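re: ur question from earlier - yeah i can do the single chain one, its not a big deal. heres the input i used so u can compare w yours
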Amino acid sequence: MHDNYANSQVYVNGSLYIPPNPGNDSPHGMNIDTWNPDWFRTIVGFEDIWWNNKLPDKDTTPVVPVTRVEINSLNGTTIILVTGSVTLTATITPSSAIQGVTWSSSDDNIATVTQNGRVTGVNPGYAVIKGTSVVDNEKFGEITITVSDDVPVITIDTDPMSTTFNTTDDIKGSLNVVASVIPVATLSYQWYENTVDDNNNGTVIANQVNPDFTIPTNLVPGSYYYFVEVRAPGAESKRSKVATIIILADIVP
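and the output i got, formated as tokens:
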């Protein structure tokens, strides 16, 4: 660290303090420990903050450089409806670097973004949402958001199939559903079980949120009813037909 103010670099709580350009009445030439803190500023989220009272404690620990900024959608979708929204997340690498990004949209007429990463559709089209590191504006990540004015429609192309097992020892395999949505959107799934052949009610099966559902191997002889609900952002959910699992008899020793 140099003693001369104009050539000094000071780190405070991990952030680089940058002195203003020296002027006629600047504290140019003053020792870094004694000059007037009214002239001192720091970069925090690209906003200039002038210190008008005491200088914070100095921390000369160098800032860990940001090497990568990755942008993702919180729920996995990059397609939203007009007036719809989605939340983006930013992952800074390495994790020891100062976290945080400044969000911006390539076209606010298509989609806007808040500084919390919340994107809202304005008009149909495409907008690139950019998250720029708050400590290095050359490090950023981008994601393309599609804004549609078409309400997505889900189609179940293949329903799960009913199956009969002769004994409990024969139980194996899984139930599967194939679904699509237009326009393209991210599909999600929730499997249900019921006591009757009906997909209007049913009980949620915890943690069964994939297109396939493994048939429980601990079933006893009887009939079991399963179906799946398929969902997509902005779309009306669609339920499959009921798949009936029948176990005819238990194993006889």
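The chain has a mean pLDDT of 80. not sure if urs matches, ping me
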